[in-house]
Design goal:
238 residues, seven-stranded mixed β-sheet, 36% helix, 20% strand, DJ-1/PfpI
Length: 238
Amino acid sequence: MKRFDFLSSTGAAAATLSALAAASPAGAAESSDAARAQLRPGQRLVAIAVTAGANVMDVAGPWEVFQDTPLAGRDDDGAFLPFLVSDARDAVAATAGLGMLPRFTFADAPQPDVVVVGAQRGSPGLTAWLQAQAPHALVMSVCTGAFKVAQAGLFDGKQATTHHEFYDAFAKQFPNVTLVRGPRFVDAENVCSAGGLTSGINLDLHVVERFHGREVADRVASYMEFVRTERPEPPRPA
């Protein structure tokens, strides 16, 4: 992607998201359909959930990958439109005090195609929202965001991973989930998980590849000057 095209696509994405927000009044059952009508054919929405203590890298990595993925045949527009979602549209204090301003709340966000859950404190609202998204979206965790996805029951009966320092705690807390130790990410079809921090980028690019193929994902990685070090491999149960 050329730098000019990148700047054009981010401007177009901002305009589309503004239209999405305008079409998503809180409490309107039809707002999601109205908001999604603003999308170009082939575009997908990526909701990145943030609550207090959200890890900056777990948000920034997915945001960068998805904002850098071009829409097929239109390098001036993005294939994914990422947005932040939280309990309220108030600023969220992320790690080291970085402020993040959600564009949507769990109550008024349009239906996403992909949901990203990084390390964070979480909330009852996040848990309920994740359960509501499960039938409709690909849900992916990064780092200890796996705990939040598991608390919502989305990993039950499936394989998942998390940050290596939390393997034992995760296995003890969620016996209905098969913890996989070692790989940077695990693909369990409608739910995926990444080990932590930069491994989230590996999973993000894998998700891009699932939707758009390896050539596009490799192109995004090249633009980011990121070396893809892992493809999916047979998981190693704990």
